[in-house]
Design a protein that fits this description.
This protein is an alpha+beta fold. The protein is about 45% helix and about 15% strand. The protein is built from 15 helices and 10 strands. The chain has helices spanning about 5-25, 40-50, 55-60, 70-75, 80-95, 195-205, 230-235, 265-280, 290-295, 310-320, 320-335, 345-365, 375-395, 400-415, 425-430, and strands at about 115-125, 145-155, 160-165, 185-190, 210-215, 220, 230, 240-250, 255-260, 295-300. The chain has a 10-stranded mixed β-sheet with strand order 3-2-1-4-5-10-9-8-6-7, sandwiched between helices. A hairpin with a 6-residue loop joins strand 6 and strand 7 (about 230). Helix 1 (about 5-25) crosses helix 2 (about 40-50) and helix 1 packs antiparallel against helix 5 (about 80-95).
Length: about 450
């Protein structure tokens, strides 16, 4: 079901009007009464880039509602204070309770929310390398500066529940220390970069379920055996599936469930080819450990074997891929990561502003339901673009805004649902009928 219209209208008006003006005063973006207020600046960027994600700043200034505001005046507002201002408005937006009704899937209803965590990196001009150092690149000037954006997303309702930033050089695990606690009974899905035995131990203590891939060099012990690297166990295993209780880790010992699925020969061969190419570029030799692991997909989890089958664990972890699709939608249909600017803080302002635009667009998409529906997200995003300026014009009047949002909700509800896919079932289809990986 869709997000409640009054809740969404209240969030839009709160974040993009009064709260934006207060944030502008607080960070020094606006020090006295000006033609360009904080709220008006944010609205022009957000709705302008929802309407046309690749529009230059001049085009946004052209539709600015205040007479006498020139494109040059608009350009001058992209300062370090503006970047801090936009960042604050963005984080305020992520903190709003905008969500669709939970999707009615029995497997997901066993949890108090399914939270996916991941990050995406955007390069920045090298003048920002002191604040946001990057990972480097193939040339001396490549990759000197980058910003990494961490996102936490609750999949059953579509609510964005967390966002944080760090230099592109920092590993994903650095976000573990700053993330807010998850509710007891929730399920957490995260990429291998977030793997940490200490974090998983704390999740156990908090009553949070989790599923994770296992690092290649991880050690585990079954029963009274001595701990050894997991790939030794897999090399000896003759079956196509493994499901064992183990104690994993060296310094931090974690009791968990080890699941492994042998890959089809074609998948294993493709993995080995990709591995050989990656190691060749790094000047390394392919180890026996990595060759063995190419034949398996390995998970660890605290989900009990008597309540969750191996197929269900596999399907649940596949939901992590939804955040990759979200990032792809942000980049291809939201312009995130692209900029016409060249100056450091000009580009950083655009990063935050376009993130705010995709968050607002995400809210508008929720009027048609959460992410695990049969609605095509690309078609829905196109409809939202058509409504962007209508929403912007209706923002001053709560009643008119709710009316526009209801029309948008009805429009999204009329979109033709995606057909069932037999060869590559959707996430919703797999959740309804969990299958053995193959």
């Amino acid at each position: 079901m869709s997000a409640p219209i009054p809740q969404l209208a209240r969030a839009l008006r709160t974040v993009l009007t009064a709260d934006a003006d207060r944030a502008a005063q607080r960070v020094g973006f606006v020090r006295r009464r000006r033609k360009i207020s904080g709220a008006a600046f944010v609205q022009a960027l957000v709705f302008g880039w929802i309407d046309d994600p690749h529009a230059p700043v001049d085009a946004l200034a052209a539709r600015y509602p205040t007479p006498g505001v020139t494109p040059q005046a608009f350009h001058k507002r992209f300062t370090p204070a503006a970047a801090e201002f936009l960042r604050e408005v963005l984080l305020n937006a992520v903190g709003q309770l905008v969500a669709a009704q939970p999707v009615a899937v029995p497997l997901l209803r066993r949890f108090a929310g399914v939270y996916v965590e991941d990050s995406t990196v955007v390069p920045l001009p090298d003048t920002l390398r002191g604040t946001f150092p990057g990972c480097g690149g193939n040339t001396p000037s490549a990759g000197l500066a980058a910003i990494k954006t961490h996102v936490r997303w609750e999949l059953t309702t579509g609510r964005l529940t967390g966002m944080a930033f760090q230099p592109g050089r920092q590993p994903d695990g650095g976000f573990n220390a700053t993330a807010d606690p998850l509710p007891a009974g929730a399920l957490r899905l995260a990429d291998l970069g977030y793997f940490d035995f200490g974090v998983l131990t704390r999740l156990n203590a908090a009553g949070v379920s989790w599923i994770s891939r296992l690092p290649p060099n991880a050690v585990a012990a079954t029963g009274d055996e001595r701990p050894s690297e997991v790939w030794h166990l897999l090399r000896r295993w003759s079956g196509d599936r493994l499901d064992l209780p183990v104690t994993a880790g060296n310094e931090t010992r974690l009791g968990c469930r080890l699941l492994a699925f042998r890959c089809p020969p074609a998948v294993a061969a493709r993995r080995r080819e990709q591995l050989v190419e990656r190691q060749r570029k790094k000047g390394r030799v392919v180890s026996e450990r990595l060759r063995v692991l190419c034949e398996w997909t390995v998970f660890v989890t605290n989900l009990p074997a008597d309540r969750f089958t191996p197929e269900e664990v596999w399907v649940l972890y596949r939901l992590r891929w939804q955040v990759e699709l979200l990032f792809k939608l942000w980049r291809s249909h939201g312009g995130f990561g692209r900029s016409h600017g060249r100056l450091g803080h000009r580009v950083l302002c655009e990063v935050y502003a376009k993130l705010l635009a995709v968050v607002v667009r995400h809210w508008l998409l929720l009027t048609g339901g959460g992410p695990l529906t049969r609605t095509n997200p690309v078609r829905a995003a196109r409809e939202v673009r058509r409504f962007a300026l209508l929403v912007a014009d209706a923002l001053p009047c709560a009643r008119r805004l709710r009316r526009v949002l209801r029309v948008l909700s009805e429009t999204l509800g009329r979109l033709r649902p995606r057909h069932r896919r037999r060869k590559r079932p959707s996430a919703l289809e797999l959740l309804s009928e969990p299958q053995t990986p193959g």
